Amino acid sequence: MKNGDSINWQEGAKANPFKVPDNYFEDFQSRMLDSIREEEKKEVRSIINLPITRWLSGAAAILLLGFIGFQQLYINPHNDLRAEEAMYSVVEFFAMDVDDWTMTEIMADNELIELDAVDGQAEFLEWMDIDEYTIIEAAMDGAY
Amino acid sequence: MTDKEILSLFRQKGQAEKAFNELLKVYQERLYWHVRRMVVSHSDADDVLQNTFLKIWKGLDKFRADSGLFTWLYRIATNEALSFIKQRSAKQINVVNEAEDLVISRLEADEYFDGDEIQKKLYAVLETLPRKQKLVFEMKYFQDLKYQEISEILETSVGALKASYHHAVKKIEHAFKED
After folding, report:
1. Looking at beta carbons, which residues of chain B come within 8 Å of A33?
2. pLDDT tens string B114-126
3. Is residue B12 part of a domain?
4. Do B118 and A14 touch (CB under 8 A)?
5. Global pTM exceeds 0.95
6. Engineered SS bond to B115: which of A130, B32, B50, B119, CB 3.0-4.6 Å?
């Protein structure tokens, strides 16, 4: 040894005594790329398998089912028609005991027909072709 | 491809794998020989190198270039190799002569070792050195790294590195004189 900081007496030991299998570095490169692709897949799988992810996906599924149910009940146009038909049958049932005049008033109150059309009695009687004499006669007979 | 170009490619959308492939091309051999001299056997070096590159892949997007890419990669490889050696030595006997014999028999059985008697002896003596001294000696003597570069990789002062190297050389010298 020439000095404390070098080991020139062992200069021969510096040569690399190790070898690697044939094509090791080429193979290593492709193995590493396969490993990182596999690692990426594992990461995706581990995110999916996280308890919080499972809870969130469960909650999302419930919300989705709720939304579909709501849509079926309230938004679907077929259901609107069914609801309308049901309403008419109820009205018809109760309307059996209601005379035409009351029905007209109810419809006018609910703005289903123009109120003015029944409010102007003179026009109405004229339209019905009833003169004042006939009205007086009918009143005396108790027909109205 | 330079370190800067590799990092720039890595940050482009959909180019990470291509950049990593370039990084492998540039650094796999250098890191392999660094690890191989530390752990000696090829199969161990292969395992350590795979773990090293997996860590590099996972950490590359967080790498902020506070240190050079080369320094960062060497630091990961060194830490992986040291962890491996620590685990391995926990399973082995720590008596100096037995450790030397163990390395020599391992080298003789290794089909990927082609060294002479002096080299066998040198690697056997290295196995008996404290880990830090062995590491500094390996980086300085075999890889001709500058003290400043080793200092950045190992995050140790240049003075402490010089002292470690000096002690390692003395011990190796002493071991050879004994024979």
Report:
1. 17, 20-21, 24
2. 888 888 888 888 8
3. yes
4. no
5. no
6. B119
